[in-house]
Amino acid sequence: MKYSVDIKSVMLGLFMATLLFGVFSFKQEGSETVGRYQTTVGEKGVVILDTKTGAYIINPYATDNGWHKGTFSHTSEIATATKDKNL
Length: 87
Hints:
This protein is α+β, with helices and mostly antiparallel strands. The protein has one domain. The protein has helices at residues 7-25, 72-86; strands spanning 37-42, 45-50, 55-59, 68-71. Strands 1-2-3-4 form a four-stranded antiparallel β-sheet. It is elongated and about 85 Å long.
C-alpha cells in the first residue's frame, strides 16, 4: 500500500492548525476582574487598592465621611519632595 502526501493538503492543515492555535490563545484585555482590587483592614484604618492602576482609597478612621483618594505615583512624588526638603 502506497501513501502519497499532497503539499496543498499539508499547507492547508498547517494553516488551519495555526489559525486554531491563535483563536484559542486569544485573551481579552478586560477579562481580568478577579483579584484586581485588594482590601486591607488594620489598626490604622481601611485601604482599598486597584492593583491595575495603582489608585487607592483610604479611610484612617473607619467612618463614612473619612475616605480619601490617591495614586501611588502622586504619593511617591509627595514623599520624595518631603524627603528632599527635610535633608
